[in-house]
Specification:
The chain has 22 helices and 5 strands. It has a 5-stranded antiparallel β-sheet with strand order 4-3-2-1-5. α11 packs across α14 and α18 runs parallel beside α20. The protein is globular, with a radius of gyration of 25 Å. The protein is about 50% helix and about 5% strand.
């Protein structure tokens, strides 16, 4: 008899426990977003893009995720051949075939349950609470609102299986091409990012590549633009207290505010100066008193992307973003990791948008960065430190991702010369030097692929700047920051090529000086 184990993963990497009660309500809160697989015959069997299998080591290495629990389900008398023939039949009859995957009703957990009971003939399947997670989520107001969005993420339900269509069952290592989606990851902390590891000896190899195609491809800002949470945020921030008497004027004011906040979900909607003023002032009140802060920050990150139809600078936006920056700098606030993460999303959007850069980023004479802005940059660099206690937790990883996105957008503006005012010389500004040194420091300790990518993109923006790129490379060389190359621990191809491109820029610039 062969032992059968159930591997339970948390796709949210801990964030569900921290955030679900806040967004779904206590009665609908979920501890994890579960993915399950069956481990038997030395293989890990799972359902996603069809029925797939590989060794447990291959699965975890290619996806950068590890089970939170592996539990014994029982022992089976079925042979590997018999079980894989059952899997083949499920693919052929469409039960778990190439077009049958459904994120909410026929997913990996349903497969694990059916495979355990019917494929391996165990007396019990997987725990019922895992099977109940989708219905628990969908029964919440936000779940009902988000269902169309989630169903739209399924890539037409086309899930090719690695089971052959012939009569012989063969197992294949599953190959996946890593894909990094920048705009979504800044706002979606539950994204599952593929990540793998390699030896330090391999990562220390220096390589000069021709051109910088990956750096050249990422020229735009990193923006957090997801709008599916807008209705839920409005429900929290414009709550009618029906048990209290409301005047007609108050009711009209609440309706107007709700309509304007709902307008944030439309990226094409025109805005007047007065409309944006109402939105910002309403959200500022929550930032100041800390009530429903997460919801206010989620809407504020969208509000800072809006531009009034007139040419008058949006002073309320400067006020809002200044308040958010002060939250990050005030140790007494004791912001949660999720609120710090969302605060950086607000600032990142404000810096990366087409709007005028907030006035508080510059000195009063408009020349050079303000001390306050430099403090915010330093705070972002501290939040990017992968060596702090608890850095491997999902909350810290999400924070590093958001802080790195903010630093990238700042570096992009610096490289374009749009945030410092007129330079007195061609030397490096203090902000440029801080980001350059900070993004290189401890980069070899970073394990998260998304954060690594953003740090390298940061460096690429600075080193490719036509006005100070060579000076930045010279500084890095003089300080000996990368004498041994970038000793990163990942086999993600895109990140490794980014590292090579940045190293090449440093080499080329050093040779030219």
């Amino acid at each position: 008899m062969t032992e059968v184990h159930l591997a339970i993963y948390d796709l949210s990497m801990g964030m569900a426990r921290n955030l679900s009660a806040q967004f779904l309500g206590p009665q609908h809160a979920i501890d994890i977003i579960p993915h399950t697989a069956l481990i038997v015959y030395g293989k890990e069997y799972f359902f996603g893009r069809g029925i797939e299998w590989c060794t447990p080591q291959e699965f975890r290495a290619t996806r950068g995720i590890h089970p939170i629990e592996v539990k014994l389900l029982g022992r089976t008398q079925k042979t590997q051949r018999e079980f894989e023939e059952w899997c083949l039949e499920q693919g052929r009859n469409g039960t778990f075939g190439v077009e049958s995957y459904d994120l909410l009703s026929r997913n990996c957990n349903n497969f694990s349950h059916e495979a355990a009971i019917h494929g391996l003939r165990l007396p019990n399947g997987i725990p019922q609470w895992i099977l109940d997670v989708p219905s628990k989520f969908l029964s919440s107001p936000m779940g009902m609102m988000m269902r169309p969005i989630l169903e739209g993420m399924q890539l037409s339900n086309n899930a090719p299986t690695n089971l052959p269509h012939g009569g012989v069952v063969r197992s294949h290592p599953v190959q996946h091409t890593p894909v990094l989606t920048e705009n979504a990851s800044a706002v979606n902390p539950w994204a599952n990012i593929p990540a793998t590891s390699t030896t330090k000896a391999e990562s220390k190899k220096k390589a000069v590549v021709e051109g910088t195609p990956i750096l050249d491809k990422q020229t735009g800002p990193l923006l957090s633009t997801e709008t599916g949470v807008v209705p839920a945020c409005i429900a929290k921030l414009v709550a009618k207290q029906d048990d209290l008497p409301h005047s007609l004027a108050e009711t009209r004011e609440e309706d107007k505010t709700s309509q304007l906040l709902a307008k944030l979900a439309d990226p094409q909607a025109p805005w007047s100066q007065s409309e944006l003023q109402i939105v910002h002032q309403h959200l500022q009140s929550f930032v100041k008193n800390g009530i429903h802060l997460s919801f206010a920050l989620m809407l504020l990150r969208l509000a800072v992307l809006k531009h009034p139809s007139c040419e008058t600078p949006n002073r309320e936006q400067c006020t809002s973003t200044r308040l958010v920056a002060e939250l990050l700098l005030n140790d007494d606030n004791k912001l949660s990791l999720s609120n710090q993460c969302m605060a950086f999303c607000v600032l990142s959007n404000a810096i990366g948008s087409n709007n005028e850069v907030p006035t508080w980023t510059r000195n009063e004479n408009g020349r050079g960065e303000s001390d306050f802005f430099l403090q915010v940059i330093d705070q972002a660099l501290r939040c990017c430190d992968p060596t702090v206690m608890g850095s491997s937790s999902s909350g810290h990883v999400s924070l590093r991702q958001s802080a790195a996105a903010f630093l990238y957008n700042v570096a992009r503006k610096l490289a374009e010369g749009k945030s410092e005012g007129d330079r007195e010389s061609d030397g490096l500004s203090e902000a440029t030097m801080s980001i350059l040194i900070g993004c290189i420091e401890n980069i070899g300790e970073e394990k998260d692929v998304t954060t690594l990518k953003r740090r390298f993109l940061c460096l690429g923006q600075l080193l490719k700047s036509p006005s100070f790129g060579k000076a930045a490379a010279s500084l890095a060389g003089d300080l000996g920051l990368v004498d041994d190359g970038f000793c990163i621990s990942t086999t993600n191809e895109e990140v490794n090529y980014l590292a090579k491109e940045v190293a090449s820029l440093l080499t080329i610039c050093k040779n030219d000086t």
